[in-house]
Amino acid sequence: MGKRRVTSGMRPTGSMHLGNLHGALDNWVRLQNDYDCFFFIVDWHALTTPGGGDAVGYENVGKLRENAVEMAIDWVAAGLDPGKCAIFIQSHVKEVAELHLLFSMITPLGWLERNPTYKEMVLGYKIEHPSYGLLGYPTLQAADILAYKGEFVPVGKDQEAHVNMTRDLAQRFNSMFGREVFPITEVLLTEIPKVPGIDAADKKMSKSSGNYIALAHDEAATAERVRIMFTDPAKIRKNDTGHPDGCVVYAFHGFYNKAEQPLVRDECEKGLRGCVDCKKRLAERMNEALRPIRDRRRELAGNPDRIRDILLDGAGRARAAARATLDEVREAMNLPPEAGI
Ligand code: SF4
Question: pLDDT, tens digit, for every residue of 269-280?
Answer without folding.
Answer: 999 999 999 999
